[in-house]
Amino acid sequence: MAGLQPGGVVPQEMVVHSTSKILEVRFSDGARFSLPFEYLRVYSPSAEVQGHGPGQEVLQTGKRQVDIVALDPVGHYGVQPTFSDGHSTGIYTWDYLYQLGAEQSVRWQSYLDRLEAAQRHRDDPMPEAAGKSCGGH
After folding, report:
1. N or C: which end of the chain has fewer CB within 10 A?
2. Domain extents for the chain?
């Protein structure tokens, strides 16, 4: 396996813990990350979540109970999870998964801050129009 960056780290082990809703990843440099499914869903690299450019990100809510129902390999560079809410278009490269793990506390606080600024809560349902401009799921 190889990441997108030459000589980059690659997963040595990935375990989906359905009960605790955690994806555990161990990388070739020894780093281990426990990534909650909600965190992965909120930071999906898909256009539905990230938009098509800076400032177009869609704040995700209602993802606390989301499950990963499938985790499919994509070439030798990433995985594509299918979440229980039907979202399945985000490809998580090894580099992005590593970044999510390394920056987890900062990114999670940023998400909580964005929720507060938008006067939203983690468990609020997504607005009906969200996610429909990029072809649905």
Report:
1. N
2. 11-117
